[in-house]
Amino acid sequence: MTDRERIAAARRAIGLIDLTDLADDHSPAGIDTLCRRAREHATAAVCVWPEYVATCANQLRGTGVRVATVVNFPSGDEPIDAVTTAVAAALSDGADDVDLVLPYRAVLAGDVDRAAAMVAAVAALVEPPTLLKVILETGALGDPGIVASAAQLAIDNGADFVKTSTGKIPAGASLEAAAAMLEVIARAGRPVGLKPSGGIRTFDEAMAYIDLADSVMGEGWSSPTTFRFGASGLLDALLAVIDGDPDAQGTSDY
């Protein structure tokens, strides 16, 4: 890849980022900075804790940058009623995307009905153009076959995207898990997106996921409507490529 091609690829990848602040020590000042950087670099979205949705919606109105938030996060174990209440509040505050943690422990225990009921209940509240992204927590699910089954469950019950990870357990995204998810997406029969998240920090890592997605789904498939990165430090790494320092890395996942 030539330098010009690397710069073009980095710019493309920036437009796919959900610029994220889900740190446990998050602060209003950090959210203001997040929104400023998202506007400046035209990321696909910001992804924040629910209490910051209204602030971000106000700051990003008219920019084209979407506002995503998380529910049932990060445990995946909250009651359905509590999750749907949180979703309704987030939508009222202006959320464009809802990232829901699948009850992955229930899936691992064989209670797929509970997991399906959670996704279906949230999907019933999320109407286009709002998007429902279901976080599978692939690092906990482990086996690609289980990841594929979880992705199928999420899609069957209304997911618009399937997402790899919360970024809150040691094992984040992997190309193996993403490949399993893409195979399910490819036969979904309707548009479904992929969101790799958790541990993607460098230009080369980002390119590997985009190349994988395009190889399965077709060249040029990865766009903000079909593909997102959940990351914060990745933006710095991609900007470094544009600025001529291709070895630079981002510093964090969220």
Give the structure's gist in a few sentences:
The protein is of the alpha/beta class. The protein has helices spanning 3-14, 28-41, 53-60, 80-93, 104-108, 112-123, 138-141, 144-156, 175-186, 203-217, 233-242; strands spanning 17-21, 45-48, 66-71, 97-101, 131-135, 161-163, 193-195, 229-231. Helix 2 (28-41) runs parallel beside helix 3 (53-60) and helix 8 (144-156) packs across helix 9.
Structure notes:
- With 254 residues, the protein is an alpha/beta fold.
- It has an 8-stranded parallel beta sheet with strand order 7-6-5-4-3-2-1-8.
- The chain is built from 11 helices and 8 strands.
- Helix content is 47%, strand content 13%.
- Mean pLDDT is 95; it is low at 250-254.
- The longest helix has 15 residues, at 203-217.
Descriptive labels:
eight-stranded parallel β-sheet, 254 residues, 47% helix, 8 strands
Measured by DSSP, the beta-strand proportion falls in 5-15%
Unreliable stretches (pLDDT < 50, length at least 5) are 250-254
Sequence of strands across the biggest β-sheet: 7-6-5-4-3-2-1-8
Any idea what the shape is? globular
The oligomerization state is: single chain
Task: State the end-to-end distance.
Answer: 29 Å
Main beta sheet, described?
Answer: 8 strands, parallel
Q: What is the β-strand count?
A: 8
Helix content class: 40-55%
Task: Please describe the topology of this protein.
Elements: H1 3-14, E1 17-21, H2 28-41, E2 45-48, H3 53-60, E3 66-71, H4 80-93, E4 97-101, H5 104-108, H6 112-123, E5 131-135, H7 138-141, H8 144-156, E6 161-163, H9 175-186, E7 193-195, H10 203-217, E8 229-231, H11 233-242
Parallel strand pairs: 1-2, 1-8, 2-3, 3-4, 4-5, 5-6, 6-7
Helix pairs in contact: 1-11, 2-3, 4-6, 8-9, 9-10
